[in-house]
Specification:
Strand order of the largest sheet of chain B: 6-7-8-3-9-10
Number of domains of chain A: 1
Order of helices and strands of chain B: EEEHEEHEHHHHEHEHEEHHHH
Radius of gyration of chain A: 24 Å
Structural class of chain A: mainly alpha
Distance between the termini of chain A: 49 Å
Helix content of chain A: 55-70%
Number of helices of chain A: 11
Largest interface: A-B, 21 and 27 residues
Structural class of chain B: alpha/beta
Shape of chain B: globular
Oligomer: heterodimer
Strand order of the largest sheet of chain A: 1-2
Largest sheet of chain B: 6 strands, mixed
Radius of gyration of chain B: 21 Å
Distance between the termini of chain B: 52 Å
Number of helices of chain B: 12
């Protein structure tokens, strides 16, 4: 039943991208996203696409995993693409008329509109691929460590960076545990004749009570136990705490940063000088 | 009713890179009225096997049949009603007290019978009977919240929830885990009581002394297969093999094996404390009483 769900998509491998510093990867992802939003036309997208392909190659992740990360998006992609080709006419310089492709009844399709719809879809695809590359190549723990370090400067404004990172890692840690627990409770209630699969929405929502109540009870129990165990080991927040995994920037991160900067520069320059739509 | 497993195999997450074989080629028949103990090392597939017995898991290979005088039926076959499945075989999971959810003990125990679609009077009668059966005072606990009870009491309420469905076969996955010796004894007595009144019992256990005292048949599992199947006497006489598998033998059995090895080759192989006492008394004769 629930056992087949895998959360947290980290795919362990020994690669250039896997070995990069999580902080750098997070920052580079942000830079990358800024870059693809600065790319104004399809040609300007070439550096972004190249960057993703290069990163994917260097991460040694199976291509099918990356493709799978797009799967939940397929409806949004198709939907936005179809809507966009009807409503977009392309950003043309003033005075220039769009090239009509189809003009029938209330439907007016233009070549420029279709290109722009393509651009939007491509932007979405590249965006998701880039983010998936980060989550696939970085373990959840490294990710929270990276986030914590990046949020540390916010401590000046009393932002609880360490606490938030700790909460995130605890949450991540307990997702599989709770899933397993939910699966077990579900089976146990099924054995008592509970039916989670049939009936209308109201009936199904009601059928969730025998699952949710024990799940909450056990989540609270686990939280209590964990708090006690942390206290017993003198946990007192982030102050003065050393780390097991010390994050270090290496030449890999330098190369990654250089590639990202080049990509953004490429996107901006091409958008500036090449106008196709 | 008999439960017949034929060439049953189960693989977790079949087809994915994380697949793991939990059971393979299990041929097993649970006959009516038996008290079967299922033993094996952690991860040997006992719990997975138990969940096959009432159709919670569908085997990836082989078939599970329920068989009676009228013939046999594939429980995952078309037209086999899930409801009748649950009615016939009850399953008590490990730490069943973590499944309690209702506001009162009465309502929680009634959950199963209600799902069977029984009428109210019948449900009330069954709930009352089940709660009494597991050794709790109905009037004292019925209107209490199950979360106010002690651990041992919660476990009994949870078991009552399954007992109230009056299954012909009751499967229990380590029912005594984490209980104090007193509650453990009472719980085992209660299970024995159910068996005496005609319920077929399948019990997973790690405690060989319990197994030796109550079970009429022992099934030993290792790495997803059944490696031994027989009476306690047959199984425990192969004590060394069990130990090689990382399993224990009952203390009485260990004592008699030690005695047989160290100068008393005629000492009978006992697996219950009473038998050992008797044999020792016989061995020591009059002298024994003196000390």
């Amino acid at each position: 039943m629930l056992a087949d769900i895998t959360l947290g998509q980290f795919y362990p491998a020994d690669s250039f991208v896997h070995k990069m510093d999580p902080r750098v990867k997070i920052v580079l992802l942000i830079v990358f996203i800024v870059g693809i939003f600065l790319a104004k036309n399809l040609i300007a997208f070439i550096p972004a696409v190249l960057f993703v392909i290069l990163a994917a190659r260097m991460s040694r992740l199976p291509v099918r995993l990356l493709i799978r990360s797009l799967k939940p998006l397929r409806f949004i992609l198709i939907f936005t693409f179809i809507l966009n080709i009807f409503f977009l006419q392309g950003n043309l310089p003033e005075g220039q008329e769009p090239t009509p492709v189809l003009d029938w009844w209330i439907i007016h399709l233009t070549a420029e509109g279709i290109l722009q719809a393509l651009l939007y879809s491509l932007r979405l695809i590249v965006l998701v691929l880039g983010s998936s590359l980060l989550t696939l190549s970085t373990s959840p723990i490294a990710l929270t460590d990276g986030l914590e370090m990046l949020m540390t400067p916010l401590k000046v404004i009393r932002f609880p960076a360490h606490e938030i990172a700790m909460m995130m890692s605890i949450a991540l840690r307990f997702i599989p545990t709770l899933l397993e627990e939910a699966d077990k409770i579900m089976k146990a209630q099924t054995a008592r004749g509970a039916d989670f699969e049939s009936g209308n929405i109201l009936k199904r929502a009601k059928a969730m009570i025998p699952l949710l109540v024990p799940l909450f009870v056990s989540a609270f129990r686990r939280a209590g136990d964990l708090a006690m165990a942390m206290e017993a080991r003198c946990y007192h927040g982030g102050e003065g705490r050393t780390r097991l995994r010390v994050l270090k920037c290496t030449w890999r991160d330098l190369w990654g940063a250089a590639a990202a900067v080049l990509m953004v520069a490429g996107c901006v320059l091409i958008s500036e000088f090449v106008h196709i739509i | 009713m008999r439960i017949v497993l034929e060439k049953v195999g189960y693989e977790y997450q079949q087809g994915s890179p994380f697949s793991a074989v939990a059971l393979k080629d299990i041929d097993l028949t649970i006959r009516e009225g038996e008290f079967v103990a299922l033993i094996g090392h952690t991860g040997s597939g006992k719990s997975t096997l138990a969940q096959h017995l009432n159709g919670l898991i569908r085997p990836t290979q082989g078939t599970v049949y329920y068989e009676d005088e009228e013939g046999r039926a594939d429980i995952h076959g078309k037209g086999y009603s899930k409801k009748s499945l649950r009615r016939q075989v009850g399953l008590v999971f490990q730490y069943p007290e973590y499944q309690l959810f209702e506001e009162t003990v009465q309502k929680d125990v009634a959950f199963g019978p209600k799902n069977l679609g029984l009428d109210k009077d019948e449900i009330d009668a069954r709930v009352k009977e089940a709660i009494t059966r597991v050794g709790l005072d109905y009037d004292a606990v019925a209107e209490k919240s199950p979360f106010e009870l002690s651990g041992g009491q919660m476990r009994r309420v949870a078991i009552a929830g399954v007992v109230a469905m009056r299954p012909g076969v009751l499967v229990l996955d380590e029912p005594t885990a984490g209980l104090d010796p007193g509650s453990r004894e009472e719980l085992l007595q209660m299970i024995k009581g159910l068996h005496d009144s005609g319920t077929t019992i399948v019990m997973i256990s790690h405690n060989m002394d319990d197994v030796a005292r109550y079970a009429g048949r022992i099934v030993v599992m290792q790495k997803g297969t059944v490696v031994m199947d027989g009476t306690p006497r047959e199984i425990f006489s192969r004590g060394e093999e069990l130990e090689r598998m990382g399993l224990d033998v009952p203390q009485s059995c260990r004592l008699s094996l030690m005695l047989r090895k160290d100068g008393f080759p005629d000492f009978p192989l006992c697996y219950r404390p009473e038998e050992v006492t008797e044999a020792l008394e016989k061995l020591l004769g009059g002298e024994g009483r003196a000390c």
